[in-house]
Fold this sequence. Notes:
Blueprint: H1 9-26, H2 32-36, H3 44-50, E1 57-61, H4 67-74, E2 79-84, H5 87-99, E3 107-111, H6 117-120, E4 126-131, H7 142-151, E5 153-164, E6 189-191, E7 209-211, H8 216-225, E8 229-236, E9 248-249, E10 255-256, E11 267-273
Parallel strand pairs: 1-2, 1-4, 2-3, 4-5
Antiparallel strand pairs: 5-11, 6-7, 8-11, 9-10
Helix pairs in contact: 1-5, 7-8
Amino acid sequence: MYAPTPDDWHAANRARWDERVPIHVASDFYDLDAFRAGKDALRDFELAEVGDVTGRSLLHLQCHIGLDTLSWARHGASRVVGLDFSEPAVETARSLAADLGLTPERAAFVAADAYDAAEAVPDSSYDIVYTGGGALCWLPDLDRWAETAASLVAPGGFLYVAEFHPMSDSFDDETATRLVNDYFVREPWVDTSSGTYADLDAATTHNRSVEWVHPVGEVVTALAKAGLRIEFLHEHDMTLFPRFESLTRHEDGYYRFGTDRPRIPLMYSLKASKAA
Length: 276
């Protein structure tokens, strides 16, 4: 349901994520044993669009348990830093880095809010600032996020965002054919669903969350206002989980609609650079 922003939105969201960390650690969805053995957590389109990271520094905002962050290190980034507001998530990420033999100088993790990143991370700027799927919906003020992220991009560097397309939040969950929610809504979405995307049947107590829908135009405008130049905005017809019942999983691991119906964008990615 849509409602005014509750005063405890931040605490509620953090309690929800803190509780789900051990569930995610134990889940087949994240499959940490396979990750430790070398499985890549990054998506092929991200690798292609970000390009070679060898010798470059990378900051991952809202990194959760750090699989994407550490994957960038495996791909050659000289130093990766992950930031997340959940202490249990950050502790897990540090443990995984140690399991992979990565020192804190090569892979560091910081527990802090995304809005406080400029004061919390160990370096003043990074060649690449990265944020992955399912991050922006937890932030009420996108202009503040964009200003913070842009301030951390080194001259000549860039911000890369891979996100779930907000258009998908406008359609019904069953068929994805009926418009049921306003794409331009500004009020937060208050959810009370139990479980987690990594384990739908998991028993959970902290089930209240507060989320925001940010239209793509709002994201692009916020980054442009923060002084970054938009290099590209790509929309994708696939997603990472069965967001709608009518999606099917393909051999490449992505979920897509069948060829018997019109498509809508399910994810998007963008690159925004800072002048040298």
